[in-house]
Amino acid sequence: MSMKKILAAFGLGLILAMPVQASGPAAVLDRAPVSLDAASLQAGAKLFVNYCLGCHGASALRYNHLTQIGLTEQQIKDNLMFTADKVGGQMLTAMRMEDAKRWFGAAPPDLSLIARAKASASGSGADWLYTYLRQFYRDDSRPTGWNNVLFPGVGMPHALWELQGEQQARFVTRDDGQGNQVQHFEGLEIVRPGKLTKEEYDAEVANLVSFMVWMAEPGQESRRAIGWVVLAVLGVLALLSWLLKRAYWKDVH
Amino acid sequence: MLTAKELEDKGRQALAWVDERFPLSVLYKTHVSEYYAPKNFNFWYLFGSMALLVLVIQIVTGIFLVMHYKPDASLNAAGVPVAFASVEYIMREVPGGRFIRYMHSTGASMFFIVVYLHMFRGLLYGSYRKPRELVWLFGMAIFLCLMGEAFFGYLLPWGQMSGWGAQVIVNLFAAIPVIGPDLSVFIRGDFVVSDATLNRFFAFHVIAIPLVLLGLVTAHLIALHEVGSNNPDGVEIKERKDEQGIPLDGIPFHPYHVVKDVLGAVVLLIVFSIIVFFMPEGGGYFLEYNNFMPYDQLKTPPHIAPVWYFTPYYSMLRATTSSFLPFLWLLVALIVGLTWRGCSCVWIRRACLLVVAGAYWGFFGLTLFGFTKPPFDLAIAGIHLGLGLDAKFWGVVMMGGSVMLFALLPWLDRSPVRSIRYKGVLYKAILAVFVICFLILGYYGTQPPSPVGNVVSQICTILYLAYFGLMPWYSKLDKCKPVPERLTWK
Q1: What is the pLDDT along chain B (490 residues), one digit of tens a residue?
Q2: Which residue intervals of B320-424 are DSSP H helices?
Q3: I want to staple B422 with a disulfide (CB 3.0 to 4.6 A). Which of A5, A26, A189, B417 is the partner?
Q4: What CATH number has the domain bearing residue A188?
Q5: What are the residue ranges spanned by the domains of chain B?
Q6: Which positions are annotated as binding heme b b562 (chain B) (predicted)?
Q7: How far is the alpha carbon of B329 from chain A, nearest alpha carbon, in Å?
Q8: B452–A22 C-beta distance less than 8 A
Q9: CB spacing of A60 vs B443 below 8 angstroms
């Protein structure tokens, strides 16, 4: 049996033996239009500082790291720095942990890495955030008055409501075929408009999510850029070591 | 200014000075320039030196990580555990730290990829057969150390999967009768995975296990160079030597195999770099997504999966349910029966009786107790020790035992030939089934439990065990081809 046949047999066996997993009700995520250009990141940083940092920290980040997205230290000091005295200070939340626990039941998580942590088989972390931030709806049964389609029973109120407005969720009660009545989500509609239209709001959320993707790993673009150089060098090295090996092995008979 | 000739003389004098005091030249000749290795090494023979390269990468990157990492579970001012934050500090603020960290995390997965392929080479060409039993056993010990190293190291980033993965694995020890519950507390140093656990795991990861690992790698190489390398034909090259006592089919390790291994190393580094620079998370398999969330003792994740390299064994653990045990005993009965019939050695027969007694209490004791799980109470555990052990205990035995089964291969394989090239279709088919089962078990170990996954894992577990358990018989039955006297070469 040749190696190719053996490998082919392995592959076939694997395919036959792995039935398609009947997965649970996987969350349907919208694709986030992430863009790491300076304009989106700066717009996102502004939203983040104004709407998120009040409750959530981003402690792995320092304010002066924002120079990496094209801002000057003076711009950062004048426009974005609300919770630190020095531009080298961490981006911490102004809220106290004890207050947070009392108000929301749990301390809001630090968001430094949230865009990486929320990735799953259903989509990237950015997709999750993009979907989540656009699916808040009014629910008077919740203590905050807000609920979320992607994250039912969420502790967080809709922080961006003045931009998006208020949404109502339509649910239809259905029989699931086994005699259980289940709530089936039908869609969201704006019942009180906010400052932005739907398209404008989606674009702003995309900026915010882009910023959070950048913030989860600020060096990601330079990492890839350096990667190409490393691969080029290794490619040359591979060629040279192949020639070296061939030259030496000429006298092996 | 010295001439070239004078410089060479000086060098020779210096070497002679050292050689009178330390066998430098002898060591170099024995292990490098006059170590004769078969010339027909193929692709599969590159993974040994690759494993050594990955080991060096792990040690060097590890040293730099320890300079900045803090094994501290307390919360910092921002409410983030210090250990978790120190990893992000390395990723963001230490110059080059992100590459050092990604190299180390990628290195962990690459180590297992390379070592699994290295072991598979052993299965292909019978590298464990006499006289290489000790090479194989040292290798097995290295594999165990590697698993320990990976397990301890995975706690250090202090993410959700770090903490909960460690909790699940340490809890397995609680399944050992009588001493189990206390033992698991002793290992953790606390009732849950906490700062005490983090500190001791750090100590094991950065010094205890690496020391043992380096010693074992040295022993593995010394043993290998004593008996000489096997090769894809499974022919002993030392049996045919020229007048100077050099194997006819051997070539010196340096320069021939060195230049070949350098080429292999560069190819490995290319794969390595693609991961480090373009996909450091490895699709959630090398760095699990949930591990970017700091460990929270009060928030159990819905799905706790070990890192991919442990998943085949994790699957076997999960597959060992109480309703599965009878099938397991059936296989054990078959193997014991065959052994009893085919072997008259009194010690082996006594071992058979011992296995039968163990199986009797394991199975019938369980039936008596209606497959109940024993409470972790000393008195009741004492009764269970005599009358039956629960499935979780057998699952742990299965997980540990199925790793250790590799160590028995030198004595299980009774084929007249070493290499798969001269084995019959029977062994080829069985090996293919074994590899497929291993991969399927690995796949299901990454998935949440499901009824289909459970049954498939159970079938694969039985086949995995049968590969080893029935080897003494099928390796004899197989129709082998005649082995050539010399290596086949181009």
Answers
A1: 778 899 999 999 999 999 999 999 999 999 999 999 999 999 999 999 999 999 999 999 999 999 999 999 999 988 899 999 999 999 999 999 999 999 999 999 999 999 999 999 999 999 999 999 999 999 999 999 999 999 999 999 999 999 999 999 999 888 887 788 899 999 999 999 999 999 999 999 999 999 999 999 999 999 999 999 999 999 999 999 999 989 999 999 999 999 999 999 999 999 999 999 999 999 999 999 999 999 999 899 988 889 999 999 999 999 988 788 778 888 988 998 898 888 878 888 888 888 887 766 665 555 454 444 444 444 444 444 444 567 788 888 899 999 999 999 999 999 999 999 999 999 999 999 999 999 999 999 999 999 999 999 999 999 999 999 999 999 999 999 999 999 987 7
A2: 325-342, 346-368, 378-387, 391-404, 409-412
A3: B417
A4: 1.10.760.10
A5: 27-300, 316-477
A6: 104, 205
A7: 25
A8: yes
A9: no
Q: Between residues 126 and 185 of chain A, which touch chain B (CB distance below 8 Å)?
A: none
Q: Confirm whether residue B225 is marked as ligand binding.
A: yes
Which residues 29-58 of chain B have a CB within 8 Å of chain A?
Answer: 39
Report how far residue A219's alpha carbon sits from residue B275's, in angstroms, rounded to the nearest whole number.
16
- Nearest CA among A180, A20, A80 for reference residue B450: A20
Would you say residue A232 lies in a domain? no
Distance (Å) from the alpha carbon of B149 to chain A's nearest alpha carbon: 25
- Residue A77 in domain: yes
Give the closest-approach CA distance of A193 to chain B in angstroms: 35
The pair of structure tokens assigned to B457 is 């894992």
| Residue B254 assigned as binding residue | no
User: How many domains does one find in chain A?
Assistant: 1
Domain with A65, as residue range(s), is: 28-218
Spell out the residues 6+ positions from residue B73 whose beta carbon is closer than 8 angstroms to its own. Answer: B81, B82, B83, B158, B194, B195, B198, B295
Binary contact (B262, A245; C-beta < 8 A): yes
Report which residue type is found at B269.
L
Q: Which CA distances in Å does A136 have to A107, A131, B278, B288, B349?
A: 20, 9, 34, 28, 70
Cβ-proximal residues to A251 (8 Å cutoff; 6+ apart), any chain: none
- ipTM of the complex as predicted: 0.88
Looking at the domain assignment, is residue A4 inside a domain? no
Is B205 annotated in a binding site? The answer is yes
Q: Is residue A144 part of a domain?
A: yes
Q: Could you name the CATH architecture of B27-300? A: Up-down Bundle (1.20)
Pick from A22, A218, A224: CB nearest B92? A218
- Interface check A218 vs B, CB under 8 A: yes
CB contacts of A213 in chain B (<8 Å) are: none
Cα–Cα dist B448/B434, whole Å: 23
